[in-house]
């Protein structure tokens, strides 16, 4: 890799365990020159883990004025992230930001309008599922005709969210944007579905709130039609109660043969074809043809490292990036269409970057 | 049981392997007095298997004029079945007919209007899934709180229909009614879903025709919302290609551990609750709570015999029947709503017997 990109890190929460280790490991590609957090102690804690010198900021505007930086890494909650992306794009900085692209398609389009006049300015919207080896393996198996004509896809995502650190972040527990976890987590699933199956043409969904601790809703059942004609079911619930694991209960489950059904409880994905089926989970793909089963164990690459490498190649070498804002916009547009469908009881077509409204917004930005 | 019901059998195709053996076994409850088929040889073949005397008819009107019969068993293709039911109801005969109740909700309502003035006249719409022990076990497990609050249901039905006798019937291969196999087979699935989860409030679906041998469509992905608030995904494909089985391939599959995934290929149903999951197939129910799995093997009762017993008790003892036309109408109404949703790209509410239009039709019939 060529010369490191001097980078300003915005946010010292989630980024500390996820972004910072990846960036430290890529010291030939990036140099974290500054860290912003409204809480000085958090910014200083991150700075302390980095090879100096690292400047610390508690005001966003001051941080963005830091001389010598070329890019920002936005790891903030969804709403302040959009404001920070706008400010950074307006200053001509390259941006690496966490998914979703924004809190709404409308806001995402406004941000894209800021970037439009400067095509060399890279905006990278991190989406680790586009580096999920399982999804790529599934895509390859379909393309190579292994299951004949794909007919249907079942994609359940079942998560006891209350046992995860994400549930602990206050901004996720009281989301100021539509959809809550259904949006925040949903864009991952849609990214994987689009990677495997192509663009989504129409959607419909029913949404339900079972657990009052998970506003505004925690459960969704949806149908999707893809441009290829394929039809699919996508379902989500975050309302599963956590299970307390003891070493003994795990041993018993393994011995009793319950391990597989227990794992399946969290949602085994299934693509049905005329001549076979593909089942997949996070770490394995199973191909079933006739009475024959082939299991592919999928190694988990460090998806964060690969995304920063991809971003670096985009900035330094002008290479096309895998996580373009267009991809991220389309992921979000499908989720927004699902929420609209559920709210208005309509079958809904996801917005596209190419839609008239979007093009005119971009043209407006360029004039 | 009391005095046998003298019965006229309409149709000598499907009935021969399904209805006739059940009726023969219930000779204390039923006596087949006449058999109608447009093909004399088929009617005579069935009559020859029965303890005489049995009259043979090749004209429906003549058959229905047979003196001494109390009931008809309608085992005809869907469209002529509706005509035959109308004729039989009009003559005051009790009717046992195969699902679906009719080719459309509109036609079903017209038939119900014929029955309305004579509340003692029993119309029984056979639906074996309402005697499916698996569905009853699932219903009990949910009611007893075993999985906490039910969140989601996944109900896939994946059938290589071209390897079944149903594909061989000409009227199914060129259906003169909406939906084809999606309707003919779908009412079974909806009966089971309603039995387990209650009434369906709204549906949406996308439909697809992959195999030109299966008009008008063979594949469907749907979302359902139940009155309880539960949301569900229902999916169907009849377009799976048949797998040729050899004894050796079966042994190999069993030895390699592929038996379970191969079986799963045809659709394992899953109900997700806050505190556990229920997986089920035709012959087994698995309850997964935490890391514990409990398997219930479900014995398969002779569902046809049980339905004729139920019909007999309805006719002779005036007992409420499990397969009332109301139930059958609601099954069909959900399928019709799914097809409407797919055709018109709308979220659709299934018609109900209690709906205004239906009530006025019934009132009209009574005036």
From TrEMBL, chains A, B:
Domain of life, source organism: Bacteria
Domain Gfo/Idh/MocA-like oxidoreductase N-terminal: residue ranges: 8-122
Pfam families in alphabetical order: GFO_IDH_MocA, GFO_IDH_MocA_C
GO biological process: NADPH regeneration
A GO term for molecular function: nucleotide binding
GO CC entries: cytoplasm
Sequence ranges assigned to domain Gfo/Idh/MocA-like oxidoreductase C-terminal in this UniProt record: 139-346
Name of the protein this chain belongs to: Gfo/Idh/MocA family oxidoreductase
Lineage: Bacteria, Pseudomonadati, Myxococcota, Myxococcia, Myxococcales
